[in-house]
Specification:
Chain lengths: ~1200, ~450
């Protein structure tokens, strides 16, 4: 049966069921559609009269017009019209019947009208028909000769969902219809013994014998196997590539998987579920956290490109509501990503938002969840004990270390309480007993207890609510959503709120030739940043026995200037100069509002059946305003005003160049982006898909304008919204130091323009559905500054091949149902916009005389080229029978060419380093994905195993740094070593006599630390390995039993190293660190060297000795670890059997930050958070638990 | 086709838009001026050499906790850097790099009658600043100028272009001075006569004469030094009367002081720290009526020693520029050396009359040239304290047995000695420079 398509023009809408809820939704829908501005309404005229004139028009078109002008539906098959002759006709207000008679005259078909349905049927004994048809056909399709009945029914799938737009035809005939959005259909005059054939996308074809029944309520059809998980289509941002035609390497994360975890940020949800994607989890910016298939650049931007709804997105990813996202596709190799050209070097993450579907009943979904987490664990940080800290202060005091601070009258630095006590003792102001008592009391405090008590929320609390509504009719589909998120973070005073909405609409013309899509995404976020913790975390000078409040909870002061000085300094004429941190907590007022919206418009028109032209436009705009309102009650404001105050001691006149009122810092940002794309799509097959060519080509032009303004208002009065101008020009005298100072002018402006033009081509040829050949090419050009025009652009290309072996006749492996090989090669690009071919200067504010100054941004580099990354990819996809085991194995090789690297220059050149195309790197790796269905009964058990291996090494680097310290402190490229290599100084143990660490200079042991750190002999350093994981992946098990499902994910990262911190005496003494707990393990007496590697404390500290120890072999640890990433629990209740408006209800719970299962270091350090394992007031995040409910209507 | 071609053309134009409004390929005079007005040229000038002089002393407990550079410079150690970068060296060449970029940029610039004076002023400034930075480096890292061996002694790397592929070796001391003088001669002709009082960082003709006077003085060409000092003072001869300066203020000088010919600050190494003490004998050598004692110094309230508080930078940074007091002293010294005793004493007395309390100063009178010279050199040390000049003076004056002195340090019982004309009067070249360009290191 080659004939399955039933063409129909049906204008009758499904009769609405008058239900209150539905009406509400309809109204809502109408509003939404109006907002989206694209509901193309067609008014019905209701008159069964036709007016038309045509010449040599096809019958189909004429019937179409008739259907449009009347409320009749027309049913026919293509077969019937196959031999139709063109129609020439002119009628005016003629009845339908009359018009049809005219049309069918001399045609091989006839018509019949039943109520409002027109059936075009084959004419009996047609003399024009030259084809011979079976008499059966003739008989069945002739109406109404046989005993017929009217049949109604409803088609549902095995999930009890109605199947909309399914085709129902009478087997062997031409009569047919399709289901409405509720899956219902109605067929008139069907032979009582007929067999109905039900077919639709996503379901298996089914035959239903009518057997004289006129009601076939709830015919269940099976969702086709290929569709169990949805049709796998990779959206690259330019086109949809079905899995069968893909040659490149894609990872798709579908909606179910995205919704497995609970978080506000989409990128966080990719963690541990997307193959080849490594989440480093230490940087604060999620985008920087992600690497796709290892490292591809040394100094250029290493972030993957993020694409949302066909266009790159450079905004804050936090502006996107996760509930609006349908799927995420990661483009990993050249064939997949080269369509993104010069920005694809680090891989591409394509995010597609949800859209409504044609012919789908309005569905409403509500998703709400809350997340709790406890106070972070502050005691994870390896801080030195308070007792030890005080003993060190005492030791330093005795050495005279604080004398210069004590005698400093130009800035009056604060001394710690212990030093003040010791000074009083030295000055004979107190007795030694008094001093001891006071110091012993201080030893009982630990400021971390006050932190926990006063600065952290008891529980951090996050709520996320989302509602969406989608559906579609015959010509139109829509999607509408709103989302609300509120995060009350771990710090008191921090809050994040987000409101998002997404409205989109698709219109398809009756003849399917024209498709118009529109969309609007809007988000508003407010970030309130009133916490004190960041202030403290950065000011490590705070002594560990500080107290924020007394035992009654009253705020206590912490000295910012020398004790006593501020009490008498101004003779009572200055603003209060004491700093009481806890009072500040209520005074902070720093908030940031961001509005972000994007408007999409797309139009696609099929010029021919195999060629369409597409035009896409996106307009995006964002505004942000940050305002830090520092009232005069705040210490920083009082302090700044006092610094400028001058007092005439004779008259008592107080002059304040800065008014004693608030100070407001503000920063306004705007961006505006236009994307425009014209694209031609070609898709044609010959000889029944023996050959198929799919191609796209077009160009893309975009512009991003960014401008920022920032500044400061002095003398701000919030009551009347006024400020007072100050004098930025003249010098004032600093109250303490008497130096000439100017009032800070924070006015700043930035105006950036980013313009890009690209041409692209992507084509694939498929032979016999078995062999696929693909090519792509792209040329990018941008307004890179200071680059010769011919270097503004770079051409990049790729080619690929795929072979579906399981479709070969010789493929005879009974247990393997699918085996597909694919391979690609090509180039992606990367660009560092900071490097230029010409000398570029940048204005850099004002100099000490208030004149605009500029500085040299870049030395010129005439030979500058864009970085190119060649990628070869080989993959094998397989599936066993019934898909019990399926998966893929991919192998890739990377060739990074002309990567930018730094070459050190002798300082006499005027520069210390030069950035140019100096390096080539190689990389290779494997991505393995294996899905297994271990048990498939009432209890279902699925396992998904991801394994990735990515290693890289430098093949060429034109420069060598002379000094080994360049390699231990940083990690400049070294040939044959990975880009992220970790090196350390060779360790020779501790000197048994002094506890001094022993290093190597020119292969011999040495304790001359200056010589050790300046050695140029590369034998004196040790190479450990890469600093980023080389083996990583996850193991996810999902167990489903009845309505319950449980899933837990175990992730692992292996094959890398990290450096841990230890005691650094110099930083401890200078109070830039509060001291590492390794202090306790330090060498103190001969023999200790057998138990410890921690060097003895020496005075004065030696920076080179500290550096040697900090970057020595003994502090490098293996990073290997296995983590229980998360656990998810679901309970689903299905209401669709009951006649309820509620279809499904899901309750879910999710837990993350569950900790490490195994790690190779035995010090309890979490390598993903190694930054928190240094002395300070950082907290380790605790378990995060979420509960949620999702309801679908 | 036509569409494509026109699209291509408009594309070129579309892509020529500057991505950041603050960026520019420097081509206009304003661009070049902005480069030379960069703070780096004002604030980043050498400051280490004073730590090696006899003007200061450090207590052991303070010294031992200093950074290696200060610690080692203070005791004239063989290796002072211990692998650390030397910012005196780095910054000077960064400044020279800016000057060279401006000079190269100006080569292609077509000036007209309208902008000729500005063109000349910028070009002159670039030559001046290149010479100024070269001389600063020479006086720390180059070997001292000795007339008899200047042609063979090692000077410094002379950077005269921006070519990053060439690393020239060190020139001889004579070549170094010749180049500095060539640049200054050009600058002198190009620069405007007027001192820009609102922008004292911008060089002027009197500043160029002043720097020439300083250069010739170091090169012991006293006639030429005298000639240039004369030329300078004939254009600008203002001296500040210290009776109008607050003696109690912890920051007595205002930035707009009229004595300054050219403003530059030293890199801050903590010169004005309350624990970097002024040599007690030097402090006591100021008379009670000499206002400089109270204006320049402040007392540490714990140890009772004195430290530097006031400098013409009006800032915590020490002054590194040029002021007329130095030029009066150069003229006085040159006149004394050349036997013009009355003129020498006239300048000396004129200067000191501005420094002492009104009515307390009695003119210094002598017929003995050597007595006059000794007095002038004493006053030179007292007047020009913490300006990076004492080290240079020690290098020069030690060559004359009459004025040669041996420096000593006593730290926690350990004695360090620096003999006159010791090779350690040239600081070692930073390790990173030696490693990367392979130039010859100083023998110490």
């Amino acid at each position: 049966m080659t004939q399955t398509a039933i063409c129909q023009n049906r204008r009758k809408k499904a009769r609405p069921r008058p239900k209150r809820f539905n009406l509400f939704i309809m109204k809502l829908t109408a509003t939404v559609l109006l907002t989206a501005c694209l509901q193309i309404a067609v008014a019905a005229n209701g008159v069964a009269q036709v007016t038309l004139a045509c010449k040599n028009e096809s019958v189909a078109n004429v019937l179409n017009v008739i259907s449009k002008q009347t409320d009749y539906s027309v049913f026919y098959t293509n077969e019937v019209l196959k031999h139709a002759k063109p129609v020439t006709l002119s009628v005016k207000n003629t009845s339908v019947e009359e018009v049809l008679r005219l049309i069918t005259k001399d045609q091989p078909f006839d018509f019949q009208i039943r109520e409002k349905d027109i059936f075009i049927v084959k004419r009996k004994n047609s003399h024009t028909s030259k084809q011979s048809f079976t008499t059966d056909n003739e008989e069945i399709s002739s109406l109404p000769d046989i005993d017929t009945i009217d049949v109604r029914g409803r088609i549902i799938n095995d999930k009890n969902e109605p199947v909309a737009s399914a085709t129902i035809i009478v087997k062997g005939g031409t009569k047919g219809t399709s289901t409405d959005s509720d899956g219902r259909f109605y067929l008139r005059a069907v032979p009582a013994n007929a067999v109905l054939v039900v077919s639709a996308v996503n379901i298996e074809k089914k035959e239903i014998p009518v057997n004289g029944k006129s009601d076939l309520e709830n015919v269940s059809v099976k969702i086709s196997i290929a569709q169990v998980d949805e049709v796998i289509v990779y959206n690259t941002g330019f086109e949809n590539i079905p899995k069968e035609r893909a040659t490149g390497s894609f990872t798709r994360v579908d909606n179910n998987l995205l919704n497995r975890s609970v978080s506000t940020n989409i990128l966080e949800r990719l963690q541990g579920v997307a193959s080849g994607l490594l989440y480093n989890g230490t940087a604060s910016d999620e985008r920087k956290n992600i690497s796709i298939r290892g490292i591809s650049t040394i100094h250029a931007d290493a972030q993957p490109l993020i694409v949302i709804d066909n266009f790159p997105y450079d905004g804050d990813i936090d502006n996107i509501n996760v509930n609006d996202i349908e799927s995420v596709v990661v483009l990993k190799d050249a064939a997949a990503a080269s369509i993104w050209g010069a920005r694809a070097g680090n891989g591409v993450i394509v995010i597609n938002t949800k859209r409504g579907r044609l012919g789908k009943k309005t569905a409403v979904s509500i998703n709400s969840n809350i997340t709790f987490s406890g106070k972070p664990d502050l005691f994870v940080a390896p801080n030195m004990s308070v007792n030890d800290y005080i003993e060190v202060e005492r030791f330093l005091f005795d050495k005279g270390y604080y004398n210069s601070q004590i005698s400093n009258t130009s800035s009056r630095p604060a001394l710690s309480p212990v030093v003040e006590i010791l000074l009083q003792l030295r000055n004979g102001e107190i007795s030694s007993e008094q001093a001891e008592t006071a110091i012993n009391e201080l030893k009982t405090y630990d400021v971390r207890n006050d932190y926990k008590k006063y600065l952290f929320r008891k529980t951090a609390f996050v709520q996320r609510h989302a509602l969406n509504l989608s559906g579609g009719g015959a010509n139109n589909s829509y999607y509408f959503s709103i989302g609300f998120d509120r995060n009350l973070g771990t710090y008191i005073g921090d809050e994040f709120r987000r409101i998002t909405t997404n409205i989109n609409n698709t219109y398809i013309s009756d003849n399917k030739k024209l498709k118009i899509t529109t969309g609007l995404l809007y988000s508003h976020t407010r970030t309130i940043d009133n916490s004190l913790v960041p202030q403290f975390a950065s000011s490590s000078t705070l002594y560990p026995y500080a107290r924020l409040a007394d035992s009654e909870g009253n705020p206590l002061p912490i000295d910012r200037y020398r004790k006593g000085y501020i009490d008498t300094a101004g003779g009572g004429l200055l603003l209060d100069w004491t700093y009481r941190p806890l009072e500040e907590l209520g005074l902070q007022d720093d908030k940031k509002d961001v509005n972000d919206y994007r408007i999409n418009f797309g139009i696609n028109y099929s010029l021919f059946s195999d060629f369409s032209v597409e035009l896409k436009y996106q307009y995006g705009k964002g505004t942000s305003r940050e305002e830090n309102n520092q009232s005069v009650e705040q210490f920083s404001t009082r302090d700044y005003i006092n610094q400028f105050t001058s007092i005439d001691r004779q008259t008592g006149n107080v002059i304040r160049p800065i008014p004693p009122a608030g100070i407001v810092d503000f920063s306004d940002g705007n961006y505006e982006v236009h994307f425009f794309r014209v694209q031609g799509n070609f898709d044609r097959d010959w000889q029944n898909e023996l050959h198929r060519i799919v191609a796209i080509a077009g160009f893309d032009i975009n512009q991003t304008l960014t401008n920022n303004r920032e500044g400061r208002y002095y003398g701000y009065d919030p009551l009347h919204a006024t400020s007072i101008p100050v004098d930025y020009v003249n010098n004032y005298t600093h109250f303490i130091s008497n130096r000439s100072i100017k009032i800070t002018n924070r006015d700043g402006f930035t105006e950036l323009t980013d313009r890009n033009v690209s041409y692209f081509l992507n084509a694939s040829y498929t032979l016999n559905r078995k062999y696929v050949l693909s090519i792509s090419a792209r040329k990018d050009a941008s307004n890179l500054f200071g680059v010769r025009s011919n270097q503004q652009g770079v051409p990049l290309w790729s080619a690929g091949f795929a072979w579906d072996m399981s479709k070969e006749s010789f493929f005879q492996i009974p247990w393997l149902s699918e085996l597909r090989f694919r391979s690609t090669y090509g180039y992606n690009g990367n660009v560092d916009k900071r490097v230029t071919a010409y000398l570029v200067a940048r204005t850099a504010g004002r100099n000490v005389y208030g004149v605009t100054q500029s500085s040299i941004l870049n030395p010129p580099n005439e030979n500058l080229r864009w970085e190119k990354i060649g990628i070869a990819n080989f993959a094998l996809e397989f599936a066993t029978k019934n898909k019990r085991i399926e998966g893929s194995v991919e192998h890739f090789q990377k060739y990074g060419q002309d990567l930018l690297g730094d070459a050190p220059l002798p300082p006499s050149s005027g520069l210390t380093e030069f950035r140019g195309n100096t390096a080539n790197i190689r990389g290779k790796g494997i991505d393995v994905v294996i899905n297994t269905l271990n048990i498939d009964r009432t209890l279902k058990w699925r396992t998904i195993f991801l394994f990735s291996h990515a290693k890289d090494w430098v093949t060429t680097y034109k420069v060598q740094h002379p000094n080994i310290s360049s390699y231990t402190l940083g990690s400049p490229p070294m040939v044959s070593k990975p880009v992220s290599a970790i090196y350390s100084y060779k360790w020779g143990g501790l000197d048994p006599a002094t506890g001094d660490p022993i290093g190597y200079v020119n292969k011999t042991q040495s304790q001359n630390y200056a010589d050790i750190v300046n050695s140029t002999d590369f034998n004196d350093i040790v190479y450990h390995g890469p600093g980023t994981p080389t083996y990583f992946g996850s193991l996810r098990n999902t167990i489903t039993w009845k309505q319950f499902s449980c899933s837990f994910n175990i992730t692992y990262k292996l094959g890398y190293y990290f450096r841990r911190t230890s005691i650094e005496y110099r930083n401890l003494f200078s109070r830039s660190s509060i001291g590492h707990s390794d202090f306790e393990k330090r060498w103190q007496k001969a023999g200790d060297e057998a138990f410890t590697d921690v060097p003895s404390m020496i005075y004065p500290a030696n920076a080179n000795r500290d550096q040697f120890y900090q970057y020595s072999e003994v502090l490098v640890e293996k990073g290997n670890h296995v983590r229980l990433q998360d656990i998810q629990l679901n309970y689903d209740h299905d209401f669709s059997h009951q006649k309820s408006i509620l279809k499904t209800l899901r309750f879910y719970a999710y837990a993350t930050n569950l900790g490490i299962i195994w790690r190779s270091n035995n010090l309890g350090i979490d390598p993903d958070h190694s930054g928190l394992f240094r002395p300070g007031y950082n907290g380790m995040p605790t378990v995060r638990i979420s509960f949620g409910i999702k309801a679908d209507f | 086709m036509i569409f494509l071609v026109s699209f291509q053309l408009s594309c070129k134009k579309y892509l020529n838009k500057i991505p950041d409004k603050r960026l520019a390929v420097p081509t206009t005079l304003q661009d070049f001026r902005q480069l030379l007005d960069n703070n780096s040229l004002i604030t980043n000038n050498p400051g280490i050499s004073d730590f090696g002089t006899d003007d200061i002393f450090l207590e052991f407990s303070f010294w031992e906790t200093r950074a290696p550079l200060i610690k080692n410079a203070y005791i004239w150690a063989k290796n002072i850097h211990e692998g650390n970068p030397n910012y005196d060296w780095r910054y000077a060449y960064e400044n020279i790099y800016i000057c060279n970029n401006v000079l190269e940029g100006l080569e292609g610039f077509t000036y007209n009658a309208h902008n000729l004076s500005e063109y000349n002023a910028i070009k002159g400034a670039a030559f001046f600043l290149r010479a100024f930075n070269h001389l600063n480096i020479q006086e720390i890292f180059g070997q001292p100028f000795r007339p008899e061996s200047a042609a063979t002694d090692l000077g410094i790397v002379l950077r005269l272009n921006t070519d990053l592929s060439q690393f020239p070796p060190r020139g001889s001391v004579k070549e170094t001075f010749d180049q500095i003088i060539v640049d200054l001669e050009k600058a002198k002709d190009l620069l405007p006569s007027q001192i820009p009082t609102q922008n004292l960082n911008r060089p002027s003709k009197p500043a160029a004469f002043a720097l020439l006077a300083r250069t010739y003085l170091i090169a012991q060409e006293y006639e030429k030094a005298l000639e240039n000092a004369d030329s300078c003072l004939s254009i600008h001869d203002s001296l500040t009367n210290y009776n109008f300066i607050s003696t109690t203020s912890t920051s007595p000088f205002r930035p707009e002081i009229n004595e300054v010919l050219f403003m530059a600050w030293q890199v801050s190494y903590g010169q004005s720290s309350a624990n970097v003490y002024i040599d007690t004998a030097l402090y006591n050598s100021y008379s009670q009526d000499d206002l400089r004692q109270q204006i320049y110094f402040s007392q540490n309230n714990v140890t009772d020693y004195y430290y530097l508080k006031g400098s013409y930078s009006s800032n915590t940074a020490a002054f590194a520029g040029l002021a007329t007091d130095e030029i009066y002293l150069i003229r006085a010294e040159c006149n004394a050396r050349l036997g013009n005793l009355p003129k020498a004493l006239e300048d000396l007395n004129y200067l000191l009359a501005h420094r002492w309390k009104t009515g307390t100063y009695t003119e210094f009178v002598t017929n003995d040239v050597e007595v006059a010279l000794t007095k002038i050199l004493e006053e030179r040390r007292k007047e020009l304290i913490w300006r990076g000049l004492r080290w240079s003076d020690l290098r020069r004056l030690n060559q004359d047995p009459r004025f040669a002195i041996t420096l000593t340090r006593n730290l926690d019982g350990k004695l360090y000695v620096l003999l006159p004309n010791d090779p350690k009067y040239a600081y070692p070249i930073p390790d990173e420079e030696i490693n990367l360009s392979g130039i010859v290191q100083n023998i110490r």
